Each structure stands twice: as structure tokens, then as C-alpha cells.
Input
Amino acid sequence: MQGISAQVNLSRQLKGRVVADSVSVDRININNITSKVLVLTQSDGTFEIEVKNGDVLVFSAVNLETVRRTISAIDQVSGNEMQIRMYSKSIILKEVVIAESSITAESLGIIPYGQKKYTAAERKLYTATSGGGIDGLLNTISGRKAMLKKEILVEKKESNLYRLEALFDETYFTETLKVPQDYVKGFLYYCVEDNALAAALKAKNKTLVMFLIVPLAEKYNQLRMSEN
Output
């Protein structure tokens, strides 16, 4: 029995694969905290690491829940491939507060509290349509209302673009989503045209944004390659 036990505890190369739903499994950290060996997964989630019976492996990534796995004798049997399932990490976005003066039109009593606030484009549209009569008719004929509505849409897309840029580092787009650096800006514009992703950005739901952006990146890369 001693001879068998000693043989089981010999170090060997363990092969395995990390799987995760709708999330990239490239370059996930696999740390053998017993032997202090660290490796990264390949683009398809496969990995290979030296282990022995009783070692503890820790699988971690910024956007995934950490997984711990203790190596057992059965894991060391030649031909066995370890499969690790990881799940997206729930990330609650903190509210971004911009320091500014506390003096507002509401605090001065100019407008009531809780009144709807309009963007510059929305104020122009309100002015163009609220007068009625001949002015409203002329504005409709001239197409000014249609132009102002387009202006509002542009404002919203620009706002979503800034939010998307603030959520991720450029390396997330280039390394995780595999979008070439020269195409990242174009990909961001492509993303904000998607209604579902725009709604997730407005709701500040980073987890949903990460879920939606992966298939968008795949479609964008396919379109880019077909055009080339």
C-alpha cells in the first residue's frame, strides 16, 4: 500500500478545460497554491498544469466567480481531463458622482423640484413644437422637427458611447473580444446601435452589457473579415 500511495502522489501534468456561458475563457488564471505554479488557459479554455494528489487549484478571472478545486487521486489517472465550469461575476456599478455646485435652478426656486430636465437637443425640439399654430406648421414643413429628433438620437448614442468606453479597458476589447486595436472605435459605434445593449448601458448593468457584447463582437469580427 505504501508503494501505491507514493506512486499516486507523484507529480504529473494534468490536462483540463474551463467552460463558461457567453464569456471568453481565454487567459483565465489557474494557480496551484500548493506548489506555487501559475498557468493561463488557451483561447479555447484548455490548460495543462503540474499537480499531485492533495494540491489546491484556484481558477480566477476579473469577470468570473473564483473556483477552488482540490486534486484527488482520480484526477491524476492518465487520460482524465478535468472540466471546470465558471460563472459570470455579478458586478454592481457604483453611481458616478460628478462634483459640481449645489446651486441649481430647483434650489433657487426657478423651477419646481422633480420637473423633467431636457438636453440641449430636447429643448430645441420642445421650442419648435410647443408653440402650435403657424409656427408649428412651418417647423413641420421645413423638416426642422425631424432634424431635431435626429439630434436627440445622436446625443443618446454619444452618451452610451462614453458609458461603454468607461466600463472597460482597451485590452478587454483587443484581448478578450479579439477586436484589433485599429477597429475598437468602430466596434464601439457598432455596439451602441444595438437596442438591447443601449438599454443595459442606460440601466448601468455591467453584467448584462458583458453578456450582450460577446455575440456582438463575434458578429462584428465576422463582418470585418468578410469586408477584407
